Amino acid sequence: MAIGKSVRLTPRYPASIRVDDEIELRLVRDRDAPRIFALMDGSREYLRKWLPWVDTTRTVADTEGFVHRAHEQMGRGEGFHAGIEYRGALAGIIGHVYLDPVNQRAEIGYWLGETFQGRGIMTRTCRRMVDYAFESLGLHRVEIRVDVDNRKSRAIPERLGFVPEVLLRESVHAHGQFRDIVMYAKLRGEWELEGSRGVSKSLHGGPAVPRTEE
Ligand SMILES: CC(C)(COP(=O)(O)OP(=O)(O)OC[C@H]1O[C@@H](n2cnc3c(N)ncnc32)[C@H](O)[C@@H]1OP(=O)(O)O)[C@@H](O)C(=O)NCCC(=O)NCCS
Fold first, then answer.
1. Which of 3, 4, 17, 28, by CA, is between 20 and 30 Å from 57?
2. Is this model's pTM higher than 0.85 or not?
3. Domain 16-192 belongs to what topology?
4. For residue 182, how far is its CA from the centre of ligand 1 (angstroms)?
């Protein structure tokens, strides 16, 4: 058990967060809906395998609904969603898909347009989101949940030194199947120990969770 610091109950998010020279995060705005929809629509076949909501997002109006709900969520202080701008082009979306201020934890969710894969965009962005959660929001725990077979997505928390804590058996229903999900987490104390060394190795292996296939 750890003694917690107090955390601001309704965080105020900045309009943009700089990741590095190439990447900037911008809070999703109403006028971004057509760009977000176009990016998703162009990668539909590859995204739908892991993101079941893709099949129910058929028009720009559906994406406008997502932006609207994101704003409501942000207003309640329960998380935020940002566009990932890579060299000025929208490459994907990342967010705190939920933020629990009482227990000081957040879950990060993300996706990239297909052609933006393989450049480290998400690993770099996710690392910044983790720093932001601990440093700026003062959170205690950051979680990432990934389908056990989603090798590319599992590689991200693994590169960032998250601990695979538990296998949530058959906890998501997608494409007619109940899927197993790996819960990864990083605690504030682990993040603090990494210090200036950047990406860490996990401090401990965590309970047995199936490995990603090579
Ligand atoms: C999950 C997803 C974001 C991963 O995309 P990705 O491009 O593999 O991840 P990154 O942007 O971090 O890039 C990592 C790749 O770039 C390479 N890379 C290049 N420069 C890099 C850098 N500076 N840092 C890290 N990796 C780098 C890595 O070697 C890796 O390539 P590899 O897969 O051939 O080993 C993407 O596949 C996706 O959107 N999938 C569909 C939606 C989804 O599954 N969302 C997650 C649900 S939990």
1. 17
2. yes
3. Aminopeptidase (3.40.630)
4. 17
